[in-house]
Known about the structure:
By secondary structure, this protein is an alpha/beta fold. It has helices at residues 12-19, 32-43, 100-110, 129-140, 152-166, 218-227, 230-235, 246-253, 267-271, 282-285, 341-347, 360-369, 373-387, 391-397, and strands spanning 2-6, 23-29, 56-57, 74-77, 114-120, 175-183, 194-202, 216-217, 262-263, 306-307, 328-330, 336-338. The strands form three sheets. It has a seven-stranded mixed beta sheet, sandwiched between helices.
Amino acid sequence: xxxxxxxxxxxxxxxxxxxxxxxxxxxxxxxxxxxxxxxxxxxxxxxxxxxxxxxxxxxxxxxxxxxxxxxxxxxxxxxxxxxxxxxxxxxxxxxxxxxxxxxxxxxxxxxxxxxxxxxxxxxxxxxxxxxxxxxxxxxxxxxxxxxxxxxxxxxxxxxxxxxxxxxxxxxxxxxxxxxxxxxxxxxxxxxxxxxxxxxxxxxxxxxxxxxxxxxxxxxxxxxxxxxxxxxxxxxxxxxxxxxxxxxxxxxxxxxxxxxxxxxxxxxxxxxxxxxxxxxxxxxxxxxxxxxxxxxxxxxxxxxxxxxxxxxxxxxxxxxxxxxxxxxxxxxxxxxxxxxxxxxxxxxxxxxxxxxxxxxxxxxxxxxxxxxxxxxxxxxxxxxxxxxxxxxxxxxxxx
Length: 398
């Protein structure tokens, strides 16, 4: 099955979608550092990027996709989140970086069987309710095009009128759209990262779909840490070296049976096999690419780092005066240091042979904007499985 990847960034979503069984026909990204990252990994012969085309570098508004009409199974991407991010100016439609209309345009031009889009949880805030609904209606009826000079709220009114008349069905191009805020930790990512995902299936396929159930849980982790000690035994941590917040002990004591899910993955699970870049020799750290110590980490109210034995806090693209902001490890002894690039890549579940192009601050921006690979793979696999009965349709057309 074929895909188109928009707003590709460093490729986290695209790698996960590729692992799920989709092969990209086109990849678009405007940022030259991200494009360099993608090009260099492709040139290095990385398994994950073996079938990828070279990224098309530039503003998505400068590209057309009508040549792919009927040849694409899924369109994926993460439209820029800055218009809706807690760390941004919250300008939504007034922000020139709002690219949801472009995502809708590409769906309109390619008519894929499905789409998968990701954005920050901030998009679901009450202050964006009307614009959130507008995005949903555009995705449901991408053929109802906004006229030149028409305001978004006037276009929204036309979409609402059309939706009230025909629902998600009717003639023309339409999609059955579902959305949900997901925590990446619930799908095997060693990071608490909440994002809203939109999945749509073309209405004529008659597909009813829901998001896959979480595979991991906090309670399963607490069971292993407090009730069974399996977690500490696995990592060979002695009783005196164990550190866990009292609130977690209190929650664990209330568990009456072992949860069915697998345990949340922790920072220790993700990086304990890597040498500490602050204390190990440069030679030891160089055994892993992009694993170097970055000085300057400090703890202050609201930015205290990620505990070693919990999933990491959300990696950020660079706010609050320092690149990466909260992208720090909080050691059990209370000291903090920045995560190395390689450690951050582990927390975002990138493969170990994937390298990032650019200085540390630029690389951390790429990392903070990325979709965790394992989260993308889990959702895309569920989409791929649903589309299998319809796969012959594209083959016949080709």
